[in-house]
Specification:
Layout: E1 2-3, E2 20-21, H1 26-33, E3 43-50, E4 53-64, E5 67-68, E6 75-76, H2 81-94, H3 121-125, H4 147-156, H5 173-186, H6 190-202, E7 207-208, H7 233-240, H8 247-253, H9 258-263, E8 278-279, H10 281-291, E9 296-297, E10 300-301, H11 305-312, E11 348-351, E12 357-361, E13 366-372, H12 385-400
Parallel strand pairs: 1-2
Antiparallel strand pairs: 2-4, 3-4, 3-13, 4-5, 6-8, 7-8, 9-10, 11-12, 12-13
Length: about 400
């Protein structure tokens, strides 16, 4: 490991094989390395930018029982990918292809069925479309892999009436909804759009929903099982769907066979931007590094400053009927929740099921991202590993300001 100032940049075409640790971020690195002491802890990677410069790029632990995590290991990061998908749509909005306050049906006519004709892009991106249900949405244990079938089912679905009282986290369906709008207004596949709008400008390839076949050997093995109880997944989902306080979670995130699907190689054959994104921490930190730096990084402008102003604006402060909390949704992001009394209230990002996450804090110029193959708690968004790492990073960034 080399201790460096942030002056040396990550080369997008040839990723570094040595680690980066800015001396100011040594406490953050120490916390990270203590997390991966044996194979039971799996592995992970942590990366950060400060004012557009890389200050952390580190990794540790095991990608599988007999394989160490290396500089080019990638990980399935679940809902962390929602932030990437949202950034794609913001890029299209900047060019006038999408208007946040237009009905979704303007771009996707079939969407106007079943009373959804007035639902806007803004409402959809802040989880107020009432289309949170993944459970029973499409038939078959691996039905969610058919993105066309999922899009058709969502277009035909009736919105949940609770949408009128507050947001309901679209845990699985959000990515399909955003991707379909993007596809309709461009005529390109979502894989092409991610390459064109995110990976290409940032010079890093590892923004994958459909993972190229020749890159799959790099994917860390996810463990343990997703099921939060000893009972079979189907039984657990059925029971939770009947409990008033947990019904929304079961509807949104416990589709039939999803526990098997998330661990199957078939998950990398499809484009499901709400949950099947595969990334390096380096790539995520670079994307959010631009958002923390006025929308620009290394001379590449990802978003205009006026777009960032809209992106940072809280869209709803109401209680989310799926999560049971007030996430204060932005346009496709939530704040970077960290284990601090003084939260980074102007931050934007997205955490993922089981522990991964990334966010940008424009107030300090910090972006930070964490990916792991060791699933932590079974909460719908994350566990405490990344909130603690993020907190340590924010503390350093505030001192450096």
């Amino acid at each position: 490991m080399s201790a460096e100032t942030g002056a040396r940049r990550v080369d997008g075409e040839h990723p570094r094989t040595e680690m980066i640790v800015d001396p100011r971020f040594l406490p953050v690195a120490d916390r990270f390395f203590k997390m991966f002491r044996d194979t039971r802890n799996g592995g992970g990677a942590l990366a950060a930018y400060l004012h557009g410069e890389p200050v952390l790029d580190i990794w540790a632990g095991w990608a599988s029982r007999d394989k160490r995590w290396t500089h080019d290991t990638v990980a399935l990061s679940f809902s962390t990918g929602k932030g990437v998908a949202s950034t794609v749509l913001h890029r299209l909005a900047e060019r006038g292809l999408v208007d946040y306050d237009e009905p979704v049906a303007t771009y996707w006519p079939e969407f106007g069925a079943a009373g959804k004709e007035s639902i806007t892009v803004r409402e959809l991106m802040s989880h107020r479309a009432g289309l949170h249900r993944a459970r029973g949405l499409v038939p078959g244990r691996f039905g969610l892999l058919d993105s066309d079938a999922v899009a058709s089912a969502l277009a035909a679905a009736s919105p949940d009436p609770r949408r009128l009282a507050g947001p309901g986290y679209h845990a699985v369906t959000y990515g399909n909804l955003v991707a379909e709008i993007a596809i309709r207004v461009t005529g390109l596949s979502f894989t092409e759009l991610v390459e064109q709008e995110i990976a290409g400008p940032l010079g890093l390839r590892e923004f994958w929903f459909h993972v190229p076949q020749d890159e799959r050997h790099r994917i860390a093995r996810v463990f343990p099982r997703l099921n939060p109880t000893p009972a079979p997944w189907a039984v657990t989902g059925t029971v939770l769907s009947r409990l008033p306080g947990l019904r929304g979670v079961a509807e949104a995130g416990m589709a039939e066979g999803f526990d098997e699907l998330a661990r199957s190689p078939a998950a990398h054959d499809a484009v499901m931007p709400g949950w099947n994104g595969v990334f390096t921490a380096r790539a995520l930190a670079r994307m959010y590094g631009a958002l923390a730096n006025g929308g620009e990084l290394d001379g590449a402008r990802l978003l205009k400053e006026e777009t960032l102003e809209q992106v940072l604006e809280v869209q709803t402060r109401r209680r989310d009927y799926v999560l049971g909390i007030r996430p204060n949704w932005r346009l496709g992001y939530h704040p970077g929740w960290v284990a601090l009394r003084e939260q980074p209230l102007q931050s934007i990002g997205h955490f993922g099921f089981g522990g991964s996450g990334a966010f940008a804090d424009p107030e300090t110029g910090l972006s930070i991202a964490f990916v792991t193959n060791r699933l932590g708690s079974v909460t719908p968004i994350s566990d405490m590993r990344f909130p603690r790492l993020g907190a340590a990073g924010v503390v350093v960034a505030r001192r450096a300001a």
